[in-house]
Every structure is written in structure tokens, then in C-alpha cells.
Amino acid sequence: MQRITRLLPAIVALLFLSGCLKDKVTHTYTLLKPVYKSKELVLSEVGSTTARSLGNPGKIYVYGSYLFVNEINKGVHVIDNSNPAAPVNKRFINIPGNVDIAVKGNTLYADIYTDMLTLDIADPLEVEVTEITRNVFPERQYVNGFVADNSQYIVDWIRKDTTVDYEGTPCWGCGLWFDLATFSNTNAQSMAKATAGIAGSMSRFNIVSNYLYTVNKSSLVVFDISNQANPAKVNTVPVGWEIETIYPFKDKLFIGSSTGMFIFDISNAAAPAFVSTVSHIRRCDPVITDGQYAYVTLRAGTVCGGTTDSQMQVLDVTNVARPALLKTYPLDNPYGLGKTGNLLWVCDGKAGLKVYDAANPLQMNVKYHFKNLEAYDVIPLDGKIIVSAKEGIIQFDAGNPEKIAELSRISKH
């Protein structure tokens, strides 16, 4: 008892000290302050400029002998790809806030933050804006309840680390704001005969005949582009939530979301009709199909959901009303994918570009593995493969499936 009595002052002191520590907590936040510009000023800056080096390449789009490469949130590189072994970076179209494009005839459609631009590209080296369609896409999504000023565009962020003293329990994560669209940071006809271009699997824009289909976070938005210079919005079809990509095949649209794959019938092009859906674990999800099978990559990550279990799913879609999961293959960090013949090309992020022998989709194996690039999206086209990667734009000669080799590379600066 006497021993315990002697210890009481020390115990009281510890309790007092712990109480003080609890009341004096510090936490360092990363604060991102938006930089605004008026919409009028930003729109006045849209147009063709001198070619610039690739900095942060995103989605790719093939049209005729040209390759259009998105520079994430900056605009579009115009590359003369008439000789894929020696592509030439010709011009840059300045479009702040741009991440998606589509082309039909002499017209290019591009998002500019929440709006959509229509540009005349009769001369791809000197483009001209013909139409601005407002509020096609919802405002960019932000964390922690940040609400943007919808009357302006956010063109940049100012980063500042701030340490704050707290009395009590800190609000972990408060003050950390970032633009989720920056984490988006991707069947072919003859290039020479194309009337509508060819997008990669990461695209949110796609053109079928005289209709442009776009997806925003929750809906499928349909434009009649019979008059290419003046797209007319004809329908908005609710799909779900966290919609990410759109891939057309014949009279169907395959739509990827973070929670599942959706199939819509576009026999009536202006009024897409829901056919079916397949749910999956919460992951980022581009999808392609060859009509018999659908291939879906599921990427884990902070924004996408989960931190492990990235994978590729193979589904039987011969009966589109009842798609069925057949097989799952483990992956590391997958993004876009594409298929040509019996070869399935998968952009596995930091793990590189993987080429599967898909003659039997239930027993696929990696035939080639290009590890010297961080692959994002891919377009297979007439014996050539075009890849958008962290390192730049890489093209492969795949005319002989038994001897695939790098053909050319436009490297980042």
C-alpha cells in the first residue's frame, strides 16, 4: 500500500501530461487553392498554336492520317501519322481543361471543363471554333465538400502546406482538395477511308453514324451531329453513378463505371435503351468487346476504390440481356485495352504493356510483355498498335503477330 502511495504522484503527473498532449495536437494539411479565369477569357485562348512537346499525354484518337493526342487539361497535339515509322508533331490546339475528343468529317468535338466545343478542322493545322455547348458535363468532382464557382473555369491550383494546432481531435483530411479529373491522370476501319475517327477504350466520347455519344458522371448524353458544325442535344439518359467510359459495337454501347458494366441498345440511335448490367467490385473500369466476349479491366487505387485486387474480367456477351462472368485474370495497375485478331492488348500501367494470346479467352497467357513503358491507352489499327504512355506515344508494328516490334516513339520532353 505504501508503495502504491509513493507511485500516485507519478501517475497523476502522467495523466495530467496526457491530457495536455490530447489538447495540443498539430496536423499538417495540403491546401489546394483554385485559380479561376473567366469563361470568356479561357474561350478566347482556344485555337491552333505552334507544336509543343508532349508533357502529360492522355487519350488518343485516330482520324485519317492524323493522330490527335490529348495533353491532359491543356489541349490536343496534332500529329501527322501518314508514316507511322516517322510521325511528325505538327501543331497544338490550345483547349484548357480538355481530356476527351472525337472527330467526324471536318469537325472535332472536345470538352473544355464543363462545356463542349465544336471545332472546324478542315485544315487540322488551323482550327476554328464554330459552336460552344454549355453544361454538357457536370462540374468537376471534388472532395471534402468543396464547391467550385460555376460562373468561371478553374485553370490551375496553388498548393500550400499548412500546420495547424488543435485542441482536441483533429479533422483528418480537412482542407485537402483536388480535382478528380486529373486522375483520369483509354473494330477499326481503314485510316484513309475513315469518316468518323477511332477512340481508345478510355474515351468518354464516341461517334456512331450521325450521333455523338458522351458520358458524364451519371448519364449518357446524345447529340445529333447530322449538321456537324452545330451539334444538337437530343437526349440525356440516366445510367448510374461514377460512369467512366463508352465503347460502341454495332448497335450496342458498352459503358464502364466504377461499379459495373452497362449495355445499351442504339437501334434507335437518338434514344438508347437499357439492356443489361453486370456489377463488380468498386474499381475503375474501361471495357471493350468483340461481340462474343467483353473484356473489362478493374483498377484498384485511392480514387477507384480498394488498394489491391486489380484484375481483368472476361464476360460472355453473346446474349446481351444476360452477360455472364467467365474468367478473371490478375493484373497490377490496368487502364485501357484493345483487341485485334487473337491478340488482346492491355495497358497495365507501371507494369507495362501486356499482349495476351486470346485465341481461347478462358485460357489466355501473356505472349509479349513490354516493360519499358507505363501504358495508359491503346488503339489497334490495321497491323499497327498506337499506345499512349507516360513516356509518350509509342507505335508498334503488329503485322506479323509472331514478331511484334516497336516502330516509332514520340517521347515526352
UniProtKB/TrEMBL annotation:
Write down the PROSITE patterns for this protein, in alphabetical order.
Answer: PROKAR_LIPOPROTEIN
InterPro entries reported for this sequence: LVIVD
Designated name of the protein: LVIVD repeat-containing protein
